[in-house]
Amino acid sequence: MDKIIDGKKAADEIAQKLQGTVASLKHVPVLQVLVLGDNPESEIYVRNKKKRALEIGIKVNTTYLNNDVDEEEVLSLINTYNLQPEVTGIMVQLPLPPQISYSKVVNSIDPLKDMDGFSEINVGKLWTGVTDFIAPATPVGIMNLLDFYHFDVSGKQSVIVGRSNIVGKPLAGLLLNRDSTVTICHSKTQDLQKITKQADFLFVAIGKPEFIDASYVKEGAVIVDVGINRTKEGLKGDVNFTSVLEKCSSITPVPKGVGPMTVITLMQQIVNTAKLREVNG
Ligand code: NDP
């Protein structure tokens, strides 16, 4: 296998399989996206999702609400989508405007339609080892990528740098469910290098361009760089790719590493949900 882990190739192959599954469904899966405010970053993410969805045969409905939208209006809209049988899944694009409660919004989504897996019910299921949960697409996408290239984390030391609800924490749960020995680091961690240098698998999600260099890495480690940082020199990960390349055994590049896996995994979760709903009636 190539030292550079090709997320685009894996995502394209998964997309092909999903196309086949969608073709066998009775109804077209529908993703309802809710965008609050006019964040240009959100627009990029929504566009990427729509492009993949179209290719696979998933319909995406996007509703845009003003930045000063009332919380009640958002909750009432989510409730409408919860009740619509044609809506397979719901996503509320982050970040939310300050007057809108994250907790109220994510927990108002029917857990079976919660495509981001942010609701407390889905988070709880992930951590209690129940299998029928939906987890955030980025960490699930990372696990899909590791599976695609036959990496086995069982019994290995996994170190995650970053403890967000979107990446670090759910990734820890997923790795633990696969019998990895997991350490989570964050901005208050002391002697970070000492810990990261123990990692067989090093996952970095901090949002700091090229922060992790060879001095943080054990010889032969597998590095998963989740970071997406827009800099003057272009898109950069959280890992200094050039510095670590020689030392690691494998690494995900930025772009074309974790990014495409996030989008395709979201699609996979929609298709799986649609399929399950047709089977269960
Ligand atoms: P957050 O800002 O929510 O979390 C960052 C985490 O990194 C926090 O836990 C923070 O610690 C920790 N951290 C920050 N600085 C340091 C440091 N110097 N040493 C150790 N830990 C540190 O970010 P996200 O998890 O949402 O995103 C992280 C990165 O991943 C971003 O670049 C983002 O763009 C990217 N991303 C990429 C995705 C993809 O599809 N590829 C999807 C989602 C995110 P503390 O908790 O103590 O503040």
Automatic annotation (TrEMBL):
Task: Name any Gene Ontology BP term.
Answer: L-histidine biosynthetic process
SUPFAM superfamilies to which the protein is assigned, alphabetical: Aminoacid dehydrogenase-like, N-terminal domain, NAD(P)-binding Rossmann-fold domains
Query: Could you name the Gene Ontology cellular component terms for this entry?
Result: cytosol
Xref: InterPro entries: Aminoacid_DH-like_N_sf, NAD(P)-bd_dom_sf, THF_DH/CycHdrlase, THF_DH/CycHdrlase_cat_dom, THF_DH/CycHdrlase_CS, THF_DH/CycHdrlase_NAD-bd_dom
- Keyword match Oxidoreductase: yes
- Tell me the ranges covered by the Tetrahydrofolate dehydrogenase/cyclohydrolase NAD(P)-binding domain, including all copies: 136-276
Q: Which Gene3D superfamilies match?
A: Leucine Dehydrogenase, chain A, domain 1, NAD(P)-binding Rossmann-like Domain
Q: Where does NADP(+) bind?
A: G162, R163, S164, I228
Give every Tetrahydrofolate dehydrogenase/cyclohydrolase catalytic domain span.
5-116
Protein's pathway: One-carbon metabolism; tetrahydrofolate interconversion
Q: Which reaction does it catalyse?
A: (6R)-5,10-methylene-5,6,7,8-tetrahydrofolate + NADP(+) = (6R)-5,10-methenyltetrahydrofolate + NADPH; (6R)-5,10-methenyltetrahydrofolate + H2O = (6R)-10-formyltetrahydrofolate + H(+)
The domain of life for this entry's organism is Bacteria
Protein name, as recorded: Bifunctional protein FolD
Native source species: Xylocopilactobacillus apis
Gene this chain is encoded by:
folD
